[in-house]
Design a protein that fits this description.
four-stranded mixed beta sheet, four-stranded antiparallel beta sheet, 582 residues, 10% strand, disordered N terminus, alpha+beta, 23 helices, Protocatechuate 3,4-Dioxygenase, subunit A
């Protein structure tokens, strides 16, 4: 059985590396027929760029050229929209020639450009011309099929009808097989190519998550997170509300530098034990902690998956996030302390009164929750500190954050294995969340498909029309739509869908700079607090609580969490209107 698991893990690892190599291997290129040599003839070059109505380059656009009614060359645009066609003609034939260029691709209107030979520039025996050609989208079969599949995948994910990884994989696979079967027979049904699907995967996000999973997987073998819970209780001196505030602060800070899902995985069990010991319903402690994890994770590039995706997509650095979002997160945490006191204050007071001997209980926690591998912890903290330094300075080095995470993970992993502190196979199998990584891969393919087919362009146009190009309206729409949608749909797929939309709006709305990106980050991360399925951290925490006999319903969670989500988004609205962080 162990051999089978190891084989499975090895296969998945090889698959990830293979996907990464494909994703970063080049930037696409032109495909053309070689020019037929004509003795004494002249060369003709037609080059240019194909752009859509949003001034974005169009990849895999087919260009066919005919000269006086005869096909002479064909090419396909690369991912940057560029193309080059070359052919030869008889000497002096271009002076009276009629050149027709046909441009076509599914989900785009076929465009035909007519050129006269006299329009070409000439140097020696070489004719050439360069053009930028705009093409309009059409809502054809590829658009409707990809949209329906995308929505169905969302429904499966949102209502947990299938595991989210399987739902995303099913949707991605269906779109690709449709493109290569029916799409081969009728090009109007072709959604995208395998190369485009692979290129749509953001391996920076995948490798960053993998690296942080390895680091946390090693550190949890030291007992440091349980020890921190004991220290929190000791500092609070048995006062349950103060303990909750301390744990919320610890959770928020940990989420900012690790990630909120990992933080809650490590703290939930400990929090339940402390709550039970204090005769407090564990949910009254877990709900504030999970809210704090989502707020704290918003403050940095690596704290919450939506931020990782946003930073990777538009090139924002770790410090960009800290400068723009850390202070508003501190404000939101302060409001959360007051909110927790109002909602659960009576329960905290009752629980505090039931602890007969605070000193005795503190001694029990000290004995139970202690550091049991200080050597590994020392190595881990040094390497984690170096990794955080790389996160903070990666903009200076022009280095992707995934490089920092993988560097720290590989060094810490090596130290742990050489010192025989960690079982390598166990860590690879149990601590690296392979389903989550694969979910991201297939999700990126899904979003890439609807982006190719034009759904995101339609949504962007709708938001632009509704906002009428007004920054305040666009910012408000992005913030509140992101918050409400993220409350009811996992914020990861929603953020992936919004990335190209916000990128377009940032270009066309004057003075928006990076503020629209911050609106998306705040809406997606804070909005995840709205319901039990709004963020992965919520699902993980409440799942662990349910497994230990403490279940809360969808409505029960929403009654206490949704009002805080609305309050926090209102604060963000005011913050963005006043300060407009660049």
């Amino acid at each position: 059985m162990r051999t089978q698991k190891s084989l499975l893990v090895g296969t998945v690892t090889i698959a990830l590396v293979f996907l990464a190599s494909l994703a970063f291997a080049g930037h696409g290129g032109k495909k053309m027929h070689e020019a037929v040599h004509i003795e004494g003839g002249e060369y003709v070059t037609i080059a240019g760029t194909i752009m859509d109505s949003h001034k974005e380059p169009v990849a895999e656009m087919a260009i066919e050229v005919s000269l006086n009614g005869h096909d002479v060359a064909q090419a396909e645009t690369g991912r940057n929209g560029h193309f080059v066609l070359e052919f030869m003609v008889e000497k002096d034939a271009m002076q009276t020639a009629s050149v027709e260029t046909k441009i076509h691709k599914s989900s785009f209107k076929t465009t035909i450009k007519h050129l006269e030979g006299s329009e070409f520039a000439k140097k020696g025996d070489h004719y050439y011309i360069t053009e930028e050609i705009a093409v309009d989208r059409v809502l054809g079969p590829a658009f409707w099929i990809s949209t329906v599949v995308f929505i169905l995948a969302y429904v499966l994910i949102a209502f947990e009808l299938l595991h989210r990884t399987i739902a995303a994989m099913l949707g991605a696979a269906f779109m690709m097989v449709l493109s290569y079967t029916i799409g081969t027979i009728n090009p109007e049904w072709r959604i995208f190519s395998f190369e485009s699907a692979i290129h749509s995967i953001d391996m920076n996000v995948v490798f960053l998550l993998m690296g942080m999973m390895i680091i946390v997987g090693v550190l949890k073998n030291t007992g440091v997170f349980q020890w921190c819970a004991y220290i929190s209780y000791k500092v609070a001196k048995g006062k349950v509300f103060i303990l909750t505030v301390i744990l919320m602060i610890f959770t928020a800070i940990s989420s900012a530098f690790l990630d909120n899902v990992t933080t809650m995985l490590l703290l939930t069990g400990v929090a339940i034990e402390i709550a039970v010991s204090c005769n407090l319903n564990p949910l009254y402690l877990l709900i504030p902690l999970v809210l704090a994890s989502n707020v704290g994770g918003t403050a940095t590039l690596i704290g919450d998956p939506p931020n990782i995706m946003i930073g990777s997509y538009c090139g924002l650095t770790f410090m960009d996030f800290v400068i723009a979002l850390a202070l508003i997160c501190v404000v939101a945490m302060g409001v959360m302390f007051v909110y927790a006191k109002i909602i659960w204050g009576k329960a905290y007071a009752t629980a505090q009164a039931t602890v007969a001997n605070v000193d005795e209980f503190t001694a029990e926690l000290k004995e139970k929750y202690k550091i049991y591998d200080p050597t590994l912890l020392t190595y881990g903290l040094i390497i984690l500190g170096f990794t955080v330094f790389l996160f903070l300075s990666h903009g200076y080095w022009h280095m992707e954050v995934s490089v920092a995470a993988l560097t720290g993970a590989s060094v810490l992993f090596t130290v742990a294995i050489l010192t025989k502190k960690v079982d390598m196979i166990h860590l690879i199998e149990k601590d690296i969340e392979w389903p989550t990584l694969m979910f991201f891969i297939f999700l990126f393919i899904l979003v890439g498909a609807v982006e190719h087919a034009g759904l995101l362009a339609v949504i962007a146009d709708w938001i632009l029309d509704l906002s009428k190009g007004n920054f305040l309206m666009a910012m408000t729409l992005i913030l509140w739509v992101a918050a409400i949608m993220s409350a009811f749909v996992d914020n990861i797929p929603f953020t992936a869908t919004m990335l190209p939309i916000v990128a377009y709006l940032t270009k066309v709305i004057p003075g928006s700079e990076n503020t629209l990106w911050w609106a998306l980050a705040l809406g997606a991360c804070f909005g995840g607090n709205g319901t039990i399925i709004g963020a992965s951290a919520n699902v993980v925490t409440m799942g662990i609580a349910e497994s230990k006999g403490y279940k809360i319903s969808f409505i029960g969670f929403m009654k206490t969490a949704f009002p805080y989500m609305i309050i926090s988004i209102g604060i963000c609205q005011i913050w963005l209107m006043i300060f407009r962080p660049a």
